[in-house]
């Protein structure tokens, strides 16, 4: 892949830079369209990001009242489960009351049938995105947050999983063999319709995979397929994750 990543000294600096990016993207979207649509992700770096947005005075002017929050993937667990992305987001951001309840669109992952949860979430997205909020019929998020696992997965699109082949549905249930469970996840058609995708990748355990992904042109790993059709993908790394890249520098 031909990527010029942004590299930060540590995960704290990465989270702060991501918060600045979101402030800028939000202001631009609201100025142009009156609303900012954002799909969240789970993980330790987003947790730091959400905490900053909720509590740091530098981001006190974030226009939450004009922001619609969605989730790019979710574990097949109830919303109060320790592994729930929604629960992490609630504990760090939503519990502050900054975001109106009606603006938070969570996955009903407590449903016994993960496929039903995915279908209902796609229907929720379909209801929200109309008119010029779509690209060739596919919803256009203003920003989608993603990460990358040491195996090259992103969202809940894991190597070898069925969802990698999905071309029409926007949200699907995806069996993840390594965890013996279903996940609910955005698919590539939806991810790649976004105006901006922020890939936030931190930690030394990601360094070997990043060396392969950012030097690989074969499309081997799921994260490589994040290539917005009419938007941008911004790769934001901490120094530990970028350590094996030839041009890594803080």
Q: Can you describe this structure in just a few lines?
A:
Helix content is 28%, strand content 20%. With 250 residues, it is of the alpha/beta class. The strands form three sheets. The protein has a six-stranded parallel sheet, covered by helices on one side.
Q: Estimate the global geometry from the Cα principal axes.
A: globular
- Strand arrangement across the biggest beta sheet: 1-11-10-7-2-3
> Beta fraction of the residues?
15-25%
Span of the ends, CA to CA = 21 Å
In total, the number of domains comes to 1
Please name the defining characteristics of this protein.
250 residues; alpha/beta; Rossmann fold; six-stranded parallel beta sheet; three-stranded antiparallel beta sheet; 6 helices; 28% helix; globular
General description of the model:
With 250 residues, this protein is of the alpha/beta class. The protein has one domain: Rossmann fold (3-Layer(aba) Sandwich). It is 28% helix and 20% strand. It contains six helices and eleven strands. It has helices spanning 11-33, 44-55, 85-92, 114-128, 188-191, 207-213; strands at 6-8, 36-40, 67-71, 73-75, 134-135, 138-139, 143-146, 171-176, 181-186, 196-201, 232-238. The strands form three sheets. It has a six-stranded parallel β-sheet with strand order 1-11-10-7-2-3, covered by helices on one side. Strands 4-9-8 form a three-stranded antiparallel β-sheet. A two-stranded antiparallel ribbon has the order 5-6. Strand 10 (196-201), helix 6 and strand 11 form a beta-alpha-beta unit. Helix 1 crosses helix 2 (44-55). It is globular, with a radius of gyration of 17 Å. The model has no long low-confidence stretch (mean pLDDT 95).
């Amino acid at each position: 892949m031909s990527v010029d990543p942004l590299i930060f000294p540590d995960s704290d600096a990465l989270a702060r830079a991501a918060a600045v990016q979101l402030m800028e993207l939000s202001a631009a979207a609201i100025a142009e369209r009156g609303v900012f649509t954002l799909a969240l992700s789970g993980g330790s770096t987003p947790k730091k990001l959400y905490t900053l947005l909720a509590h740091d005075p530098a981001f006190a002017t974030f226009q939450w009242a004009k922001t619609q929050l969605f989730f790019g993937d979710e574990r097949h667990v109830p919303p109060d489960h320790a592994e729930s992305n929604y629960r992490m987001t609630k504990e760090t951001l939503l519990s502050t009351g900054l975001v109106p309840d009606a603006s938070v669109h969570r996955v009903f992952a407590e449903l016994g049938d993960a496929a039903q949860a995915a279908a209902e979430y796609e229907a929720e997205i379909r209801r929200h995105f109309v008119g010029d909020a779509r690209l060739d019929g596919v919803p256009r998020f203003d920003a989608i947050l993603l990460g990358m696992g040491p195996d090259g997965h992103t969202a809940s699109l894991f190597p070898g999983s069925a969802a990698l082949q999905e071309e029409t549905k926007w949200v699907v249930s995806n069996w993840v063999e390594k965890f013996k469970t279903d996940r609910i996840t955005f698919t590539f058609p939806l991810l790649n319709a976004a105006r901006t995708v922020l890939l936030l990748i931190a930690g030394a355990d990601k360094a070997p995979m990043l060396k392969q992904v950012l030097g690989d042109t074969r499309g081997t790993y799921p994260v490589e397929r994040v290539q917005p059709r009419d938007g941008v993908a911004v790769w934001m790394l901490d120094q530990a994750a970028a350590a094996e890249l030839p041009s890594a520098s803080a």
